[in-house]
Give the backbone structure.
Amino acid sequence: MTVPLACADFTFPLLPHDQSLQLIAMLGFDGVDIGLFEGRSHLWPSTELNQSEASGGELAIQLSDLSLRCADVFLQMHSDFHELAINHPEPARRAKAREGFERTLQYVLAAGAKHITILPGAQFDQEPTNASWQRCIDELEWRLKRAGGCGVTLAIEGHVGSIAPDPYRLARLLNEVKGLTLTLDYTHFTRSGLSDAEVESLLSSASHFHVRGAKAGRLQTSFAANTIDYGRIVELLVRRGYPGFLGVEYVWIDWEHCNEVDNLSETILFRDFLRERLADAES
């Protein structure tokens, strides 16, 4: 069975959302990764989640009309990783984050999706590391139970600035929260100078996968400058019967030099590369 390809709606932030979806459909992708990023994507949690089921239903109609599937909904409730982190020391903020997650589950189901990505939590310097870590475990277990009860796969994305910024701490999280999966993005580790080999063991935990160019010191680069061996990754995923989408995820924001490539051209180059490698791996 062919692994489907998705493209992030937030790859094209200068277009209105409906035109971004139309472009993704025109490019021949099977699905869309929807970004619910407060203050920095087309769709914001503060507006979409006010009427979660209605908003999700509207999105489902838009996607159906374009013959697209909702591959993933990526929730980030605040532009700062700490302000509404799932493991924030303040109970009121954790409660708000839980409420947002509950509403996102309603939104995801109404949109016809079965996959949600969240951030893993943050380290808070005013307390011991193990305190931040344990609250992270507790909150992830609560979310995993809620998502599982709805038939939704829960994934975290380890990223620069999170409580799990490297493969080793991500692996520890997965070991301590049984059933948790990954939206795996090598670029955060490549940027830090880690090799593909140091990340590869996480592939077996991936339920979603992000693809874009990266190299040491750069979170996002062109296809030509990329150093990640996506050919090998595709081969390994196919061999293991990977169940999810491959999501091409270029972003265009003034952070980590992520506004210095031509997102449209790079998306097309990776689309064609993935199609070719998938055809070879699945033949």
The mean pLDDT is 96. Strands lie at 5-8, 31-37, 69-76, 115-118, 153-156, 181-184, 206-211, 213-215, 218-221, 246-248. The longest strand covers residues 69-76. The chain has one domain: 9-282.
